[in-house]
């Protein structure tokens, strides 16, 4: 019977090549402290953290349909917890960041319960207001400097590792590690049963609900996990920044608008998009940032032009041309080649 | 008396917020467009007002005669040239495009006018006041409130009593079917944006008389505008006024308790209202 | 025989990747009532949407009075005198009954239809003119939808499933009004699932199946078997 | 071949703080001219390259560009100016990355305590010169004492770095004002960019305040000042930090700008001269006005002085290649600059030294406003140029 | 035999439109029930009520004896009720196989190889195996309807709700479909089938109900029901004549 000649695979030739190249790239990146200068190391680290934020936002907006403009709430929350737990709790920064993630998940639960009642634009504005509430609330905490903010005491930074080089390498590896963790989790999650459910929800909520998918629960799970990871990334960001203040920690421009820019430019709803978007964003920033106002105007212009000319982003353009998928999420049904059957 | 004062001043402040929000409410209601650049457009209008009043030696309020048509023209061109292409079920394209616009306007103003704070000189109007039942009220805030009410009443009348308003409502209900009635939706949306920016012109002038402004202050006000719109309910203009007043009163009463609570109180009241009524206080009743 | 008022040649239609119409050919003669029948999803609505300008077509795929109109926008086509009574009525919920009618008259075309004429045709609507359109019964809503289209004084009117979801008695009323509506030289295309009805009011009929014309002919010349075959593809 | 010393410079060229940096182009061009011939160090001529970056008025961005300068451009010394939002993130990066850093144009309390500085320990790599809140208080009290108005003061402090420092119960205004017999009414910290001050105004009115003081940003002050008039609150003296520094702000207030008072860090009347060019304060201010067509502003002097200190350090350092030697040169600075003497041995606290501060009032002369120095008892070397008038 | 599904006095209206009017009936385990009625009678709405896509205004729904009126669509689906949509609702960006996998993994709760094998089997049965890698958004209407059936089967239901899946099929295809459905029934699955193509319906169901304006106006043996005057009147159209 013909049926027996079919089987299912979840990978492809290009994906295998991409995975191989990706692994090599990862090894090279892991070794960066030995080949890269201090500035490059920091730049790659920063790039990694932006990539992590972008991947997480993409998971929410691109897959779960949760268009949030308030993710800075969790970035800032993570950052502040890093400061609070290390300064007052005397915790090691790495441990503090891990705990910040857990607490991020915890606070996201009531937040989700509130804002999940809203849809579309209301949801977006609601998340923004929540982030403002976070900002204004932390501005009331005088132990953390209130509205003026505070610096991470040098002693705490030094406690990270012995010597400047070791410290910088560790900070870098943490950033790289979290990013790999985020991208890998997003990838594995989307390949999993729950991920399939999420993709189904994105395509058609009516059908998804009728096929046993609990839409609210699935989105809730995504929101909570994203919040936790975003808080951890926030902790790492402010470990690099060394100084935190409410305006900086809960900046809608830095932690959400630029991230949306990255994701949409790169291609929303794909794993590749945020990666490409991050590279484009940093390329623009590194080449033009010294131009000040001009740089920002160029950024705005790029956003508009890409949105009008390539609404699916750069990866969308590439994919429609070459049918590539570097991170295969789907299933392929193939006819068996073997003659034994 | 202090509490009464806080509430009265909050109500007047609400008028300002409603003025900020009215244009936003209009386009949000007609085309579900979330305009991130709205705050920056208000600032742009303030600069236009400043330039015209200085160049022509006009009173800022007289400058409205120039600024309103100018902003309306900008709105129409903007809508037809750029924003119409981003409309659809997805809220992201307009969000990102108007974000881009916001960045461009801000930085272009910075290039053109520097970061210096500017203010429009409205002479005695700025400081004039009158006594009212034991309170001292500023003429300008009262005028702002009155203008907000007038603008909203005007928009409301336009929306419910004129062919243009019918066209707005029909296109907002169902774009395809509206097209079948001979309405060119690109044009209708262009007109809606033109009208929105005409209101923005008024808001900009009043902002510029009330306080000093620089290119960067637009964004901060934007969120109050959105809150007023959402509290009031999608596209409900009187609702927007109510939303603005609720926000203003929440802020002044919050500030009365502790100045640090001023903005926070506004946001918390917003969240509270949404928790109870996710579609705002006066949602439009659809079929 | 009249000249065709509308000619459709090799019409395709897509919803994203999905193709709903495949190289359709069809024409409407001036002054006739044409019926289009077909199973659910056959593409009838899509065809009417294409004519009315709500789908993306090539200019030459739809010709109206000899002019290529396939690439025009819906509002331009409406101004030329083609009106659609959409499936499911689709009234504007935030407009009152009278406003719904008035907005139909926006094209400003001259002709016999005015608010008064519509109220004459459907007296119940005058009683309800200030009411929200959504508060009407289904049949009354259908009357508004028809009235709204008539207000444009079209030369060609397209009806998509006017009897769908209506009680038989209302259907009877509406069909009774039909001759009065198309009487004065207006041409009409009627999409209808009730085949008996469709055949009885029309002079010619097309049957669509899976986005293609599977049968065409004079309404009184077709046998039930022909139709049944065309309808379900039963060979 | 002449070796090059790299100096990194961070300032808010764009964004809300851009006013503080508006003279950067002028000052930097002048400095670069001066440095063009190189600077002599241990008998060797060094090129000094200044790499300037924009913080966009954003502390996140300030930290980023500081790290870029330190790690990427590998600057030998980094300098920064203009409000805690610029100086603190830059100094933090320098401290952790172990690069000498000099900052100015931010009162020392928000600089020192805002960075969690511990008195007695201080910082290793980061140094700051400016005045402190005690100087502001001294200058203000001096001015208010002369005014003869009721000693009831209303305080307006935002919840930001400057506002929290000024309003701090011990380090800020409250304690010394009380000691001097002034009654300070401080309703609390408002969030910057507030649209309404009626609660403050009502409270000030109730308490009969005749003096209003605080530290504000220009839009907030403009809002407050208009509302005060509208609500019938007419104090006799209004002395506000930060918001009233710039002539453009005063000009934008129209007639309502006349008579407002503020701290004066630097003015053309200051009797100091540049150690680099020999130009007097008046020369520098006039030069700026002549070249840009804009009125002088207070940050000009400090921006200039920042590079005076750099030049001095470069001349004196025992080994310019060595951060520690450069640091030693900084600590041993004793230089008379265009803003006064800079000498970290005389500081009020570790890593900080102070320049003199007086108080001034904007007075309308014809069509223009002039900042008159009306109180100088803490820095008598700076001459008075006018007399306080009540509003 | 026990009832798998019981509707008791189910009512639902949208404003003036009543789509279910005190609707009551039972479906026996393993039985096949046919539903006919004019357009807009409320047949699809009845499915929406049974599957939880719509909440009734009043009345109770029992599945295998349990009251499920309060549970959501997802829970009912996992509990063993699957449906096909009259207007196909594919996951357009997923392939046909992935569409099936959604059902197998989410509704049937299978994972890994087990799910994949089930999907391959069902696709083979419904004739879509050759299209397994096609994006569902690009399918023709007929294939979309097949996909609806496929997904419903991959959910491994005990009660299967089919909404007009025979429309537009050729006679040969119709036969295959009838065979397929009879085979499914043979495995013990209970079926409710809404269909205008009455001859196909009659080849499967053992009981028929007629719905008009949300009311049940006829019920019983298919032949008898079809011959009744009421049905004749409502179905003045082609099916009655045929
Ligand atoms: N907006 C849409 N997006 C995707 N597919 C659509 C859309 N509208 C219609 N279709 C599909 O196009 C095909 C033709 O639909 P159309 O509405 O034209 O059929 P119809 O003959 O009018 O059917 P009915 O009798 O149910 O009204 C159907 O398969 C339908 O599912
Ligand atoms: N969500 C809804 N809101 C308002 N009216 C609705 C809604 N869903 C269905 N209706 C109306 O309820 C009536 C019954 O619709 P339903 O889809 O159940 O009919 P049906 O019997 O399945 O018809 P068909 O044979 O055409 O599929 C129709 O008039 C329809 O317009
Ligand atoms: Mg149809
Ligand atoms: Mg149905």
UniProtKB/TrEMBL annotation, chain A:
Membrane spanning residue stretches = 20-37, 43-66, 73-91, 97-116, 123-143, 170-190, 220-239, 259-282, 294-318
Query: Could you tell me the membrane topology recorded for this protein?
Result: Multi-pass membrane protein
Pfam families with a match to the protein in the record: BPD_transp_2
The yes or no answer to whether the keyword Endoplasmic reticulum is present is no
Query: Which UniProt keywords are given for this protein, alphabetically ordered?
Result: Cell membrane, Membrane, Transmembrane, Transmembrane helix
Q: Name one GO cellular component term.
A: plasma membrane
Location comes to: Cell membrane
Picking any one GO molecular function of the record gives: branched-chain amino acid transmembrane transporter activity
Q: Which PANTHER family match?
A: ABC TRANSPORTER ATP-BINDING PROTEIN, HIGH-AFFINITY BRANCHED-CHAIN AMINO ACID TRANSPORT SYSTEM PERMEASE
* The protein's name in its UniProt record: Amino acid/amide ABC transporter membrane protein 2, HAAT family
Task: State the species of origin.
Answer: Ruegeria marina
TrEMBL record, chain B:
Q: Name one GO molecular function term.
A: transmembrane transporter activity
Matches recorded under InterPro entries: ABC_transp_permease (IPR001851), BCAA_transport_permease (IPR052157)
**Swiss-Prot/TrEMBL GO biological process terms:** amino acid transport
CDD domains on file: TM_PBP1_LivH_like
Report which superkingdom the organism of origin falls in: Bacteria
Query: Which of UniProt's keywords are assigned here?
Result: Amino-acid transport, Cell membrane, Membrane, Transmembrane, Transmembrane helix, Transport
* GO CC annotations on file: plasma membrane
Q: How does it sit in the membrane?
A: Multi-pass membrane protein
Q: List residues traversing the bilayer.
A: 12-34, 41-71, 91-110, 130-159, 188-209, 221-247, 259-276
* Primary localisation category: membrane
Q: Give the location in the cell.
A: Cell membrane
Similarity annotation = Belongs to the binding-protein-dependent transport system permease family. LivHM subfamily.
Name of protein: Amino acid/amide ABC transporter membrane protein 1, HAAT family
UniProtKB/TrEMBL annotation, chain C:
List residues of the ABC transporter domain: 6-235
For biological process, the GO terms are: L-amino acid transport
Gene3D superfamilies recorded: P-loop containing nucleotide triphosphate hydrolases
The record ties this protein, via PROSITE patterns, to: ABC_TRANSPORTER_1, ABC_TRANSPORTER_2
Q: Which InterPro entries match?
A: AAA+_ATPase, ABC_transporter-like_ATP-bd, ABC_transporter-like_CS, BCAA_Transport_ATP-bd_LivF, P-loop_NTPase
SUPFAM superfamilies on file: P-loop containing nucleoside triphosphate hydrolases
Any single GO molecular-function term of the entry would be: ATP binding
Q: Which UniProt keywords apply?
A: Amino-acid transport, ATP-binding, Nucleotide-binding, Transport
Give the similarity note: Belongs to the ABC transporter superfamily.
Protein name as it appears in the record:
Amino acid/amide ABC transporter ATP-binding protein 2, HAAT family (TC 3.A.1.4.-)
From TrEMBL, chain E:
Listed under GO cellular component are: plasma membrane
Q: What is the lineage of its organism?
A: Bacteria, Pseudomonadati, Pseudomonadota, Alphaproteobacteria, Rhodobacterales
PROSITE patterns from the UniProt entry: ABC_TRANSPORTER_2 (PS50893)
Instruction: Name its species.
Output: Ruegeria marina
Please give the superkingdom of this protein's source: Bacteria
ABC transporter domain mapped to chain residues:
5-238
Name of the protein: Amino acid/amide ABC transporter ATP-binding protein 1, HAAT family
Keywords, alphabetical: ATP-binding, Nucleotide-binding, Transport
Sorted alphabetically, the Gene Ontology BP terms of this entry are: D-alanine transmembrane transport; L-alanine transport; L-isoleucine import across plasma membrane; L-valine import across plasma membrane
GO MF assignments:
ATP binding; ATP hydrolysis activity; L-isoleucine transmembrane transporter activity; L-phenylalanine transmembrane transporter activity; L-valine transmembrane transporter activity
């Amino acid at each position: 019977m013909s049926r027996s000649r079919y089987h299912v695979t979840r990978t492809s030739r290009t994906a295998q090549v991409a995975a191989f190249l990706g692994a090599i790239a990862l090894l090279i990146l892991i070794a960066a402290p030995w080949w890269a200068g201090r500035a490059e190391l920091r730049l790659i680290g920063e790039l990694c953290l932006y990539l992590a934020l972008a991947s997480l936002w993409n998971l929410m907006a691109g897959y779960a349909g949760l268009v949030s403009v308030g993710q800075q709430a969790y970035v800032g929350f993570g950052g502040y917890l890093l400061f609070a737990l290390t300064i007052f709790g005397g915790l090691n920064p790495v441990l503090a960041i891990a705990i910040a993630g857990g607490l991020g998940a915890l606070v996201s639960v009531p937040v989700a319960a509130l804002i999940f009642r809203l849809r579309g634009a209301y949801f977006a504005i609601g998340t923004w207001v929540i982030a403002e509430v976070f900002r204004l609330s932390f501005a009331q905490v005088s132990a953390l400097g209130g509205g003026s903010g505070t610096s991470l005491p040098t002693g705490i930074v030094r406690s990270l590792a012995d010597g400047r080089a070791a410290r910088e390498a560790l900070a870098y590896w943490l950033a790289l590690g979290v990013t790999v963790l985020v991208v890998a989790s997003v990838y594995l999650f989307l390949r999993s049963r729950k991920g399939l459910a999420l993709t189904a929800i994105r395509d058609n909520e009516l059908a998804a609900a009728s096929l046993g998918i609990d839409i609210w629960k699935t989105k809730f799970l995504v929101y909570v996990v994203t919040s936790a990871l975003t808080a951890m990334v926030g902790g790492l960001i402010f470990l690099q920044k060394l100084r935190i203040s409410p305006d900086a920690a809960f900046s809608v421009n830095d932690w959400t608008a630029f991230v949306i820019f990255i994701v949409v430019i790169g291609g929303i709803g794909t794993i590749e998009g945020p990666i490409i978007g991050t590279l484009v964003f940093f390329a623009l920033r590194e080449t033009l940032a010294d131009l000040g106002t001009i740089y920002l105007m160029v950024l705005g212009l790029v956003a508009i032009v890409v949105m009008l000319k390539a609404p699916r982003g750069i990866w969308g353009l590439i994919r429609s041309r070459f049918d590539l998928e570097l991170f295969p999420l789907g299933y392929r049904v193939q006819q068996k080649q073997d003659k034994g059957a | 008396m202090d509490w009464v004062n806080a509430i009265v001043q909050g109500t007047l402040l609400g008028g300002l917020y409603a003025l900020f929000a009215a244009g936003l409410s209009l386009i949000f209601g007609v085309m579900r467009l979330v305009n991130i650049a709205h705050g920056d457009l208000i600032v742009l209008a303030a600069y236009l007002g400043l330039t015209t009043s200085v160049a022509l030696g006009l009173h800022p309020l007289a400058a409205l005669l120039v600024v309103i048509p100018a902003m309306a023209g900008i709105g129409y061109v903007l809508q037809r040239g750029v924003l119409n292409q981003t409309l659809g079920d997805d809220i992201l394209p307009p969000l990102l495009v108007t974000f881009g616009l916001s960045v461009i306007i801000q930085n272009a103003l910075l290039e053109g006018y520097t970061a210096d704070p500017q203010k429009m000189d409205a002479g005695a109007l700025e400081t004039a006041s009158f006594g009212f039942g034991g309170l001292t009220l500023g003429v300008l805030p009262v005028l702002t409130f009155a203008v907000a009410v007038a603008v909203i009443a005007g928009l409301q009348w336009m929306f419910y009593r004129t062919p243009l308003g019918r066209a707005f409502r029909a296109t907002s209900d169902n774009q395809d079917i509206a097209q079948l009635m001979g309405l060119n939706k690109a044009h209708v949306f262009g007109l809606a944006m033109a009208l929105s920016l005409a209101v923005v012109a008024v808001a900009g002038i009043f902002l510029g008389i009330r306080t000093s402004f620089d290119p960067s202050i637009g964004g901060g006000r934007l969120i109050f505008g959105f809150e007023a719109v959402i509290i009031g309910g999608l596209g409900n203009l009187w609702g927007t006024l109510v939303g603005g007043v609720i926000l203003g009163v929440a802020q002044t009463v919050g500030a009365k308790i502790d100045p640090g609570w001023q903005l926070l109180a506004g946001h918390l009241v917003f969240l509270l209202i949404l928790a109870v009524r996710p579609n705002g206080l006066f949602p439009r009743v659809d079929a | 025989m009249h000249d065709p008022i509308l000619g459709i040649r090799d019409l395709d239609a897509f919803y994203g990747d999905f193709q709903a119409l495949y190289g359709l050919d069809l024409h409407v003669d001036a002054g006739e009532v044409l019926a289009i029948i077909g199973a659910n999803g056959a593409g009838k609505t899509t065809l009417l949407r294409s004519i009315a300008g709500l789908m993306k077509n090539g200019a030459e795929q739809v010709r109206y009075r000899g002019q290529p109109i396939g690439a025009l926008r819906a509002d331009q086509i409406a101004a030329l005198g083609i009106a659609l009574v959409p499936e499911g009525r689709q009234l504007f919920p935030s407009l009152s009954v009278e406003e719904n009618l008035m907005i139909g008259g926006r094209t400003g075309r001259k002709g016999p239809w005015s608010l008064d004429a519509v109220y004459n045709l459907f007296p119940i609507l005058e009683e309800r003119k200030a009411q929200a359109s959504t508060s009407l019964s289904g049949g009354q809503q259908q009357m508004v939808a028809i009235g709204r289209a008539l207000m444009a004084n079209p030369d060609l009117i397209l009806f998509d499933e006017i009897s769908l979801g209506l009680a038989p008695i209302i259907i009877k009323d509406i069909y009774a009004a039909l001759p009065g509506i198309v009487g004065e030289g207006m041409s009409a295309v009627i999409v209808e699932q009730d085949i008996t009805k469709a055949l009885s009011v029309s002079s010619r009929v097309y049957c669509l199946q899976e986005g293609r014309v599977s049968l065409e002919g004079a309404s009184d010349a077709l046998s039930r078997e022909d139709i049944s075959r065309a309808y379900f593809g039963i060979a | 071949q002449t070796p090059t010393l790299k100096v990194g410079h961070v300032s808010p060229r764009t964004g809300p703080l851009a006013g503080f940096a508006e003279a950067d182009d002028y000052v930097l061009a002048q400095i670069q001219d001066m440095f063009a011939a190189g600077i002599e160090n241990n008998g060797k001529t060094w090129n000094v390259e200044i790499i300037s970056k924009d913080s966009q008025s954003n502390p996140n961005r300030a930290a980023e560009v500081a790290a870029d300068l330190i790690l990427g451009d590998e600057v030998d010394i980094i300098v920064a100016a203009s409000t805690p939002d610029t100086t603190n993130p830059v100094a933090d990066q320098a401290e952790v990355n172990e690069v000498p850093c000099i900052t100015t144009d931010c009162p020392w309390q928000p600089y020192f305590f805002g960075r969690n500085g511990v008195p007695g320990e201080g910082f290793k790599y980061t140094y700051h010169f400016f005045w402190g809140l005690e100087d502001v208080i001294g200058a203000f009290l001096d001015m208010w004492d002369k005014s003869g108005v009721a000693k009831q003061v209303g305080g307006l402090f935002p919840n930001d770095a400057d506002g929290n420092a000024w309003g701090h119960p011990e380090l800020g205004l409250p304690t010394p004002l009380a000691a001097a017999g002034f009654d300070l009414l401080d309703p609390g910290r408002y969030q910057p960019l507030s649209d309404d001050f009626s609660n403050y105004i009502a409270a000030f009115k109730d308490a009969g305040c005749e003096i209003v003081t605080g530290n504000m940003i220009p839009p907030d002050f403009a809002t407050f000042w208009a509302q005060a008039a509208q609500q019938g609150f007419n104090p006799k003296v209004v002395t506000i930090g930060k918001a009233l520094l710039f002539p453009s702000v005063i000009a934008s207030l129209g007639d309502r700008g006349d008579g407002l008072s503020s701290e004066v860090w630097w003015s053309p009347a200051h009797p100091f001269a540049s150690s680099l060019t020999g130009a007097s304060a008046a020369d520098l201010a006039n030069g700026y006005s002549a070249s840009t067509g804009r009125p002088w502003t207070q940050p000009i002097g400090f921006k200039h002085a920042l590079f005076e200190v750099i030049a001095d350090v470069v001349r004196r350092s025992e080994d310019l290649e060595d951060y520690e030697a450069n640091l030693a040169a900084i600590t041993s600075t004793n230089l008379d600059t265009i803003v006064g003497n800079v000498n970290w041995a005389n500081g009020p606290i570790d890593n900080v030294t102070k320049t003199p501060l007086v108080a001034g009032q904007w007075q309308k002369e014809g069509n223009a406003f002039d900042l008159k120095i009306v109180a100088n008892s803490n820095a008598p070397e700076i001459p008075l140029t006018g007399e306080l008038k009540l509003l | 035999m026990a009832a798998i599904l019981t509707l008791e006095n189910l009512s639902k209206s949208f404003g003036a439109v009543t789509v279910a009017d005190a609707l009551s009936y039972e479906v026996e385990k393993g039985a096949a029930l046919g539903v006919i009625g004019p357009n807009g009678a409320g047949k699809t709405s009845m499915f929406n009520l049974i599957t939880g896509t719509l909440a009734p205004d009043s009345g109770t729904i029992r599945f295998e004896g349990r009251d499920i009126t309060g549970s959501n669509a997802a829970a009912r689906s996992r509990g063993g009720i699957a449906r096909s949509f009259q207007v196909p609702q594919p996951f357009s960006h997923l392939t046909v196989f992935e569409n099936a996998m959604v059902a197998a993994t989410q509704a049937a709760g299978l994972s890994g190889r087990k799910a994949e094998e089930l999907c391959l089997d069902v696709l083979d049965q419904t004739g879509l195996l050759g299209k397994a890698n096609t994006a569902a958004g690009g399918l023709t209407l007929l294939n979309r309807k097949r996909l609806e059936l496929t997904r419903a089967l991959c959910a491994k239901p005990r009660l299967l709700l089919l909404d007009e899946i025979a429309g537009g099929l050729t006679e040969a295809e119709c036969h295959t479909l009838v065979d397929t459905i009879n085979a499914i029934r043979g495995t013990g699955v209970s079926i409710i089938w809404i269909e205008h193509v009455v001859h196909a319906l009659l080849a499967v169901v053992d009981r028929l109900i007629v719905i008009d304006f949300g009311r049940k106006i006829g019920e019983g043996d298919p032949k008898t029901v079809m011959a009744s005057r009421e049905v004749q009147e409502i179905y003045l159209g082609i099916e009655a004549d045929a």
